[in-house]
Amino acid sequence: MLQSRTSRRCLRRRSQSRRRGNIIVLSAVAMTMVLGFTALTVDVGFLMETRTQMQAAADGAALAAALEMPNGWGTGKTLTAASVSTNAKTAAQTVAATYRVGEQPSAYVDQTRDIHLGQRTADAQGQWVETWNVSPYNMVEVTVRRDQAMTTTATGTTVTRADQAIPTFFAGAIGSTQTTVVTKATAVLSPGGGFYIPPGSGLTCPLLPIALDEPTWNNLINNGTGSDNYKYNSNGTVTSGADGIKEVNLYPEGSASLPAGNRGTVDIGSSNNSTADLSRQIRNGPNETDLAYFGGTLKIPAGGLLALNGDTGLSAGIKDDLAAIIGQPRAIPIFRSVSGPGNNATYQIVKFVGIRILFVQLTGSPSGKKVTIQPAPVFDGTITRSSGALQPDSIMSSLQLIH
Fold it and tell me: For 165, which DSSP code?
């Protein structure tokens, strides 16, 4: 009997020991799984945050690079493709460095490896075609990387790289020590089709209330018909001499294409605009109140023409105002046809184009009066985007991220 009880106690002890052993094993497995899930949660969270930071860096860098492209576009460009490329890459690298990416205090982009410029155009079927390393540039792509291997010097020192793969905090315990991430952003210049001023912003738009006829403009852009007597300099001044960009006279030399009593001036706003309104708009640009007469947005209707009333006429009363903006980029309306006399004239506007004024002479005989202009890049946040590809004489709207 005593032996039986002793045997039973031994069996119970062995059974309890086995249960304790099983519990320890199961606990160890459970702890490993919990640690694994914890590592995964922490590392995935850090990875997602870093990816978001990298995308923001790529977006900011691409937009900064694209800001360097307007002056290299179109008939009136003032920068070479090489200068645009250099400026754009420097801007992208500088802006990327202001963004923190994970444990790194700044993002790094390599100017050769990570920044590419090209051209985005529409083909005959209206499909977008993106071609890299073709100028003039209106598209830029920036890549932000965290995919490079750590480097080690000859002495065995590990060199930290801003673009190295993202280290894991805990996942190394389950065999993963780093993760690679690559983000990209592509920004483009888009053509402008009109003007919009946000309510209460106090902004003005860079539009002159003076229209030019379509044949004169098209001959200038397409055929190079014009003179080359003035030079626009990189510091914004204008001097005598040639700069390779042809010029035309905004002041009509004859009146065959214009109604009597009107020399191309148009009402941007009220039909009762005075010479004082013309002066204000020439120097500072039309404001929110002016655009309110067009419902807040002044634009060319899709598939149609924009009708603008004629104004008081191009006269010596605005000579000083025009002279005050010599060298500055402005947009002007291009009209296809005009009807009616003087203030009752109606101009049918087909597009807006970019110009700069080079010379003003509005006194003396009619044959000696001149407002000499040449094509110029015009890029402004009040310019609204239009569909279609950027043309050599397009005004340019705010930048757009497309990828």
Answer: P
Residue 369 three-state SS: coil
Question: Is 166 in the same domain as 201?
Answer: no
Share of the chain residues as helix, strand and coil, in percent rounded to the nearest 5: 30, 30, 40
Of 134, 161, 188, the residue at which a domain comes to its end is 188
Q: What is the pLDDT of residues 166-214, one digit of tens each?
A: 887 665 555 567 889 999 999 999 999 999 999 999 999 999 999 999 9
Residue 344 is classified by DSSP as G
Distance CA 192, CA 387 (A): 8
Show which of 188, 218, 240 is a domain's final residue.
Answer: 188
Structure tokens at 95: 């802006």
Burial class (CB in 10 A: 0-12, 13-18, 19+), 292: middle
What is the pTM for the complete model shown? Answer: 0.82
CA max distance for the chain: 141
348 and 264 in a common domain: yes
Kindly state whether residues 275 and 170 are assigned to the same domain: no
Question: Quick check: bond before 392 cis, omega within 30?
Answer: no
Which are the contacts of 325, defined by CB distance < 8 A and separation ≥ 6?
A: 282, 283, 357
What residue numbers bound the domain in which 200 lies? 192-387
Residues 232 and 177 occupy one common structural domain? no
What is the tens place of the pLDDT at every residue in 249-269?
988 754 455 555 556 789 999
Classify residue 275 as exposed, middle or buried by CB count within 10 Å of its CB (0-12, 13-18, 19+): middle
Do 39 and 110 lie in one domain? The reply is yes
Q: How many CB atoms lie within 10 A of CB 9?
A: 10
